[in-house]
Design goal:
The chain is an alpha/beta fold and 243 residues long. It has nine helices and ten strands. Strand 7, helix 6 and strand 8 form a beta-alpha-beta unit.
């Protein structure tokens, strides 16, 4: 039986200056499925996914993560089940030591010190960062920062992971490492990216956004191989399909 992990009904959102960023989005995402959100700059992608962890709250419509409604009183619960990987790793890494950044989330949950130590070590070892645990995040390479920020998400063991431009500034080797990591996750994932080849490699389903609306929704390879559809929404075919 397929379980719905994310349920969105009639979501709309306007900024304080009146700009309409999201317009009547309805979407259901199955448990442990992978969805890519693509579109030109200004299409509303980041604003949309930032609703999924409660960074923005619905002004119109509703969002549920599992059986939890996204609203102010439930934010603590939402933050436990939804992990957000920011576009810029520097927004996620803010302490003087990598170990402390990864430990921050579990510490705020009041976990026992021994349990925190085990979880942090497991997360850092999984991402090949254990030897860097005492290093200042500011002194890490861009690729190391990307995986360090991923460690701060994985250590919380969320049911849903939201990724905003996860391949930004990654070299080919680290990009491949990230693809393998994402494909090994037994999580529900929602990925915003301009890197359509990454979306091809990691997502089962793709939604195209344009002017705050979802204008196409289907199997990833069907959507991403449709030149006319992509071009109508100011996108290009993935590099692997360009001739």
């Amino acid at each position: 039986m397929v379980t719905c992990m994310i349920a969105i009904e009639g979501l709309s959102f306007s900024y304080s200056d009146g700009t309409r960023a999201i317009e009547q989005i309805s979407l259901a995402v199955a448990e442990r499925s992978s969805v890519g959100i693509v579109g030109a700059n200004g299409a509303g992608k980041s604003t949309f996914v930032n609703h999924l962890n409660g960074y923005y709250l619905p002004q119109e419509g509703s969002i549920s993560i599992g059986d939890i409604k996204v609203c102010k009183k439930n934010l603590d619960r939402i933050h436990k089940v939804v992990g957000l990987l920011f576009q810029n790793p520097d927004d996620q890494l803010f302490t003087a030591r990598l170990y402390d950044d990864v430990a921050f989330g579990p510490e705020n949950l009041g976990m026992k010190r021994a349990d925190i130590a085990r979880l942090v070590e497991d997360a850092l070892r999984e991402l090949g960062l254990w030897e860097l645990r005492d290093k200042a995040p500011a002194h890490l390479s861009q690729g190391q920062k990307r995986f360090a920020s991923f460690a701060t998400v994985l250590v919380m063991n969320p049911e849903v992971i939201i990724m905003d431009e996860p391949t930004a500034d990654l070299d080919p080797k680290n990009r491949r490492k990230l693809i393998n990591l994402v494909n090994g996750l037994k999580k529900t994932t929602v990925t915003v990216s301009h890197d359509l080849d990454f979306i091809w490699d990691t997502c089962q389903r793709v939604c195209i956004m344009n002017q705050g609306r979802i204008v196409a929704d289907g199997a990833a390879r069907d959507i991403l191989s449709n030149r006319a559809l992509l071009e109508a929404n100011h996108l290009e075919l993935p590099l692997r399909l360009q001739r």
